[in-house]
Task: structure prediction
Amino acid sequence: MIRNILIGTALATLAMNPALAQEINVKLGVLNDRSGVYADLSGEGSVIAAQMAVEDFKAADKGMKVEIISADHQNKPDIGSSIARKWYDEEGVNAILDVPTSSVALAVADITAEKNGVLINSGAGSTELTQGQCKPTTIHWTYDTAALANGTGKALTDAGGKKWFFITADYAFGQSLQENTAKVVEASGGEVVGNVDAPFPTTDFSSYLLQAQGSGADVIGLANAGGDTVNAIKQASEFGITQAGQKLAALLFFITDVQALGAQTAQGLSLTSAFYWDRNDATREWSKRFMERHGAEPTMVQAGVYSGTLQYLKAVEALGSAEDGKAVAAKMKESPFDDPLFGKGSIRGDGRAIHDMYLYEVKTPAESTGEWDLYKEVATISGEDAFLPMLEECDFTKQ
Amino acid sequence: MAIAEDTVKTGPLRESIGMPRLHKVIFLVLLGLALLLPYGVYPVFAMKVMCFALFAYAFNLLLGFGGLLSFGHAAYFGGASYVAAHAAKVWGLTPELSILAGTVAAALLGLVIGALSIRRQGIYFAMVTLAFAQMVYFFALQVPFTGGEDGIQSVPRGDLFGLISLRSNMALYYFVLAITFGGILLIYRIVHSPFGQVLKAIRENEPRAISLGYQVNRYKLIVFTLSAALAGLAGATKSQVFQLASLTDVHWAMSGEVVLMTLLGGMGTVFGPIVGAAVIVTMQNYLATFGAWVTVIQGAIFVISVLLFREGIVGVISKWLKRPL
Result:
């Protein structure tokens, strides 16, 4: 501890005199699910993404020594929070990356604020991170449930899907996802013709799907996640729902899930994502390098870890030190970014990264040319429309 | 003749009522180690081990001494952690009152669930407790005050008795140590009291205990409630340590974990649950970097322990020493 303070003071003194600038030590911890349901969409891929960010930033040439460590939080908040505490207290970690699963992310955000680190969250979807439980040291990079609801709800309604029917997972997350989306649908001139609550978790969606089919809705919204969504989509495909003209919209779904289902089963599914590997030359170039190392195309969560790390390192370089997490987070919010993967954007005072989101439709097997050639772009949702407005008390740039 | 045999089996009566010297020495050594522990290992980790040790110990009271296999202890552990977290965060109670509130809630829950489930035996008893625990889980998932899958976050650590700040890890550590040690000694006392002797009699031969005139169901209900309350004490303390209460603690996997801890350490032994909890929590913590392998390693260790030393770690040592531990 005393050593850290000494190093910190030493670095601070050195930073004032750039001619004398010496090595800046940065330690990053990738904390995510490496064995459970989110292991594919975050897991080892996120660690590789963070390493690629360090390499692409050419940290070594800039006199920065960046070390990356990782651990599995097993989606349990107590395990996640004890790892985070230990990292800050004993390992000298400066920033924690990724952290899917809302309950773990909120716990880690708390500890990060207490220990003056930085949390660059990519994996979790809870809007609470930058709303009710906002912290000056939290950066929420990739997506949140409001952005997904906005993207899918607004873009699909604008495209003519006026009547909606929801199949909702019967717990807080599902209910709030449905509520958010329904608001957007109604604001865009659509109507909600019905909804059904399915217990969590559910394996047999047939009766809910038949109800949805009979409702005469244009769009069936799946306000659930993970295994529930996969089961619902599989059964919808057996019923031929999308081929019969109704649209199926997954409100929280990742490319690894689509790839696992295959184009045959998932065809016609609408979903919102912050990133798709095949969107432009820059994403293709990066994804090709990622593919070579990881053996799968990157998810938006992994891409978010890369971009978040890149921005973080820039801020650390500018400050000359990674010791004061609050200062680094403030620095990150100062100037807008032009990111190779997420395009132009900025980080708001509450830590919410604002960038475009995209509405995609899964290709049919005839259109798809490979196992990862899965999405076609339907609409772009600008960052201002996608994310919730900032709460006054969460604007940390003004405090 | 039969009575004489029983006395031989359970050891001399004198030894089971007072604390044998060996146990005294081990408890003192454990206490000494625990006092020095935070200087060697990370205090938050040590506190977690202690919370789980108390949880496993409370479970052992029911399984090891009462002979009742409950598969729903997460309900009391997690239920108490929610109540304690809510009490500290929303009602603004001091840590000791929050923990007390959680413990009382768990005791009441245990009383109700216990009264209904002790009417069945063996696997049916286990299934009934599991069913009730799932109801508690569902309740925690649905009601607004638990925060659904986000859980209750940023619970303040507060001041003990309104005086001593528990914000530093060290202060909190010794508070948790006092609770855990107090809880464990209480259970030890319960087990070695005349009440505990009756419990063992019921475990060994229920019809005989009935024929001797004992109100068997009343004893079972008391031990069930005590076990639930002490599991609640552990859960409530954990919520103060980690400053959160979440669905993990009420999930059925937690009920399974405590069974694993107790069996690995040694069911029905005095020190087994402490060892079992320490082994499992240490594995979860220090093997976290191995990712997917944690659960595989945990499973392998369990298989090995069931195949090679069914009495658990402490059970085997106790066999070697030919002394009850």
Remarks:
- The longest helix of chain A spans residues 300-319.
- Chain A has two domains: 2-143+280-355, 146-273+356-386.
- Chain A has a mean pLDDT of 89.
